Amino acid sequence: MNWDAIFGAGNLVAIIAWAALIFLPRWPALLSALLFVIVGGLCLTYAVSMIGTVTGLLDMGGGGGGMDFSSIEGVRSLFASDAGVTIGWLHYLAFDLFVGIWVARDADAKGFSRILQAPVLFFTFVAGPIGLLLWLIIREGRARALGRWD
Prior knowledge:
The protein is mostly helical and 150 residues long. Helix content is 77%, strand content 0%. The chain has one domain.
C-alpha cells in the first residue's frame, strides 16, 4: 500500500476544498459537493483504510503494532506506522473540513461578513478546535440577538 500517495492525495484534495470554501461564492451545489463528495470521500478513504489495516488486508507500512487506543503507548505505536499517520491525518482532514463547512454555513445564515469568516476558517483548517472555539465565541452575541442558536 502506498500510504505516502494516499496522504498526499488527501492533503491536496483538502487544500483545494478549503480554498473553495474560503474564496469561492457559496453556491448550494459547491457546498453540497464539498460536504458529500470531498468530506464523504475523505471519510470513505478513512473507513476503507482503517478496516483494511484492522483486518490485516492492508499493510501497516512499518511500525505500528495492534490497535490499542487505551494507552498513550498504544496510540504512539499506531502513529509509528505510515498507515497510522495517514489514517489519523485523514480523520483530521475530514472532521476539520466538516466543521469548516458548518462554520461557513452558520456564519452566512447569521449575516457575518466573509472577511470575518476567513480567519476563523483558516484557524479551523490549521488547528481545528481553535477555529471552532473562536467561532463559538464570535457567534454567541449574534445568536443571542437573533434568538437562534441553531
